[in-house]
Amino acid sequence: MRIYGVVGYKNAGKTGLMERLVTEITGRGFSVSTLKHAHHTFDVDQPGKDSYRHRIAGAQQVLLASRARWALMTEIQDAEEPPLADLLTRLDPVDLVLVEGYKRDGHPKVEAHRSETGNPLIARDDQTVRAVASDTALDLHRPVFDLNDTTAIADFILSEVGL
Q1: Would you tell me which CATH number, out of the four given (3.20.190.10, 3.40.50.720, 3.40.50.300, 3.40.30.10), belongs to the domain 2-41+80-161?
Q2: Three-class SS of residue 117?
Q3: pLDDT tens-digit profile of 27-66?
Q4: Torsion angle, CA of 124/127/130/133, rounded to 10 degrees?
Q5: Residue ranges of the alpha helices (H) in 58-149?
Q6: pLDDT of 87-139, one tens digit each?
Q7: Residue 58, exposed/middle/buried by CB under 10 A (0-12, 13-18, 19+)?
């Protein structure tokens, strides 16, 4: 399975870039899945809903299904957070998996960067960051794209993964 990451600090534009890339790449006829890392405890369930009540009651897994979609929630409790490689095995086969976060993993990535955040570039010290999508011109020894030039960024990623 081909994977490519989007990394960057908070408010750098990662999620917006991911959304635009999914739209652009699926619009070209490729199948895409996404995997997003959350740095905090999160809940996709709503208090009071049946599936939430099942989980809170102690169910290790809760599968919620309807005509439109299904979702499987797994409680890991005190276990270690699963590595990216393990999570990828749980996805159905697609042409490309776009990964938001997991900046320390070894897969190729594009960095989203906004100058107003004042954060340093991850790309300066990380060779797995193959390009930067920024709202300002940068002097780097790798491609730099306009953060809003989704077509060019998608072209780059698809070329990198051989699609």
Answers
A1: 3.40.50.300
A2: helix
A3: 999 999 999 987 666 667 778 888 888 888 888 888 888 8
A4: -20
A5: 84-88
A6: 999 999 999 999 999 999 999 999 999 999 999 999 999 999 999 999 999 99
A7: exposed
Q: What are phi and psi of 99, to 5 degrees?
A: -110, 120
Instruction: Specify whether the CB–CB gap between 37 and 138 falls below 8 A.
Output: no
Q: Would you state the structure tokens that stand for residue 83, as one six-digit string? A: 């590595």
Q: Evaluate whether 33 touches 92 at the Cβ level (below 8 Å).
A: yes
Tokens of 41: 């405890």
Query: Which helix (DSSP H) or strand (DSSP E) does residue 137 occupy?
Result: none
Beta-strand pair 70-74/61-65: antiparallel
Q: Reduced to 3 states, what is the DSSP secondary structure of residue 18?
A: helix
Q: How far is it, in rounded angstroms, from Cα 22 to Cα 31?
A: 9
